[in-house]
Amino acid sequence: MGFLSGMDISASGLNAQRLRMDVISENIANIDTTRTEDGTPYTRKYVVLEERGSNFSDIMRSKTDEVQGGVRVAEIGLDTTDYDLVYDPAHPDANEEGYVQMPNVDLSQEIVNMISAYRSYEANVTAFNAYKDMAVKSLEIGS
Questions:
Q1: d(Cα 68, Cα 4) in Å, to the nearest integer?
Q2: What's the confidence (pLDDT) of residue 66?
Q3: Interhelix angle 5-29/107-141, nearest 10 degrees
Q4: Where do the structural domains in the chain lie, given as residue ranges?
Q5: What pTM was computed for the model?
Q6: How many whole angstroms separate alpha carbon 74 and alpha carbon 53?
Q7: Pairing of the two strands 71-78 and 45-51
């Protein structure tokens, strides 16, 4: 295990949670987008994380090189839940019955997800700083 592997693990968590917050922000920003380039309402996105170094080749590499701990983004998926129908016959995207398909983004769910991502980001910063402080203290022992 290398000297900087602890920092690398925390940094991978920071990158993953930052991307997660970016995706959540995009969902919130498009909460009222009824028409995208393909003509459908905006579809909510979500981030799937997985352990870094979980496949066979990564494990073999970790035995010969550096330990590959941490987390990575496996995919950015699209939520397949149905769109909300809102009655608004004056809306330009209303169908023949006067209903508009609204994005499947729930603001309260996105806020909870944002708080979770923020807390995870904050925990990774704390772990990174603790590791950095321990490294500095260990260097002071030798001097």
A1: 11
A2: 56
A3: 160
A4: 5-141
A5: 0.83
A6: 12
A7: antiparallel
pLDDT tens-place string over residues 104-131:
999 999 999 999 999 999 999 999 999 8
Q: Are 102 and 84 in contact (CB under 8 A)?
A: yes
Beta bridge partners of 41: none
Burial class for 99, CB neighbours closer than 10 Å (0-12, 13-18, 19+): middle
Give the per-residue SS3 of 13-78. HHHHHHHHHHHHHHHHHCCCCCCCCCCCCCCCEEEEEEECCCCHHHHHHHHHCCCCCCEEEEEEEE
Q: Could you tell me the pLDDT band of residue 55, with boundaries at 50, 70 and 90?
A: low
Q: Which of 108, 106, 105, 48 is nearest to 77 (CA)?
A: 48
> Could you report how far apart the first and last alpha carbons of the chain are, in Å?
24
| DSSP single-letter state for residue 104 | S
User: CB neighbours of 6 closer than 8 A, spacing ≥ 6?
Assistant: 127, 131
Dist CA 25 CA 31 (whole Å): 10
Q: Please give the pLDDT value at position 97.
A: 94
